[in-house]
Amino acid sequence: MVVDSYDFWLFDLDGTLVDAEWSYTRDVFDRVGDRLDRPFTDREAEVLWHGLGGARDDQLREWGIEPTEFWPAFHAEEDPQIRAEATYLHEDAADLVRSLETPVGVVTHCQSFLTDPVLQHLDIRDWFDTVVCCTDELGWKPDPMPVRHAVDELGVDAQSTGVLAGDGSSDVGAAWNAGLDSIHVERHDPARRGQCVLGDYRVQTFSDLDE
């Protein structure tokens, strides 16, 4: 089985292990739209929240929105506790992580002021040996540096084989750039994503790995 093939595992967080209720996402984008005087459709909110169009900054520019204006507004409208209470755990991901007997970590674009309350609210922080939040200093997936930082924190030896699982092309790219295998879990209709994300393994749920 794939699960038994690796010495350590890394996971993306949002869209891979957890997701937020749509009502929370819609409310955030309504308030961000008010700040920017530019409303967001349901489709635009979905694309940006889940990164369906690839790199979010590129998507923002395509829509005529400067990322340097969008992200401060977006983070200003995110309430950590409300976000945590609106977040749920994907059961297939929970089953997989609980079954692993190897070092396990998270590498996420979600910032620490949001990540920490989510992990605490879901009571899953102790599932992970390290949690790495991407930053401008550390880099953003598909940059391999956050992944390499997580591997260093896991303390695995240089000959260990590892895999990174995520729901986006940036996760697959980060895995490959860091010399790891990749698992793409497609939690959205590929037609809505508008592109096909390749990976060493492609599954709709982590339960499919057993097959």
Would you spell out the secondary-structure blueprint of this structure?
Layout: E1 8-11, E2 18-20, H1 22-36, H2 42-50, H3 56-62, H4 67-77, H5 80-85, E3 87-89, H6 91-99, E4 104-108, H7 112-122, E5 130-133, H8 145-154, E6 162-166, H9 169-177, E7 181-185, H10 190-193, E8 201-203
Parallel strand pairs: 1-4, 1-6, 4-5, 6-7, 7-8
Antiparallel strand pairs: 2-3
Helix pairs in contact: 1-4
Explained architecture:
- The chain has about 210 residues and is of the alpha/beta class.
- The protein has two domains: about 140 residues, Rossmann fold; about 60 residues, no CATH class.
- Helices cover about 45% and strands about 15% of the residues.
- It has a six-stranded parallel sheet, with helices on one face. Strands 2-3 form a two-stranded antiparallel sheet.
- The longest helix is centred in the N-terminal third of the chain and has 15 residues.
- About 35% of the residues are buried.
- Belongs to the HAD-like hydrolase superfamily.
- GO terms for molecular function: phosphoglycolate phosphatase activity.
- This is Phosphoglycolate phosphatase.
- Pfam families: HAD_2.
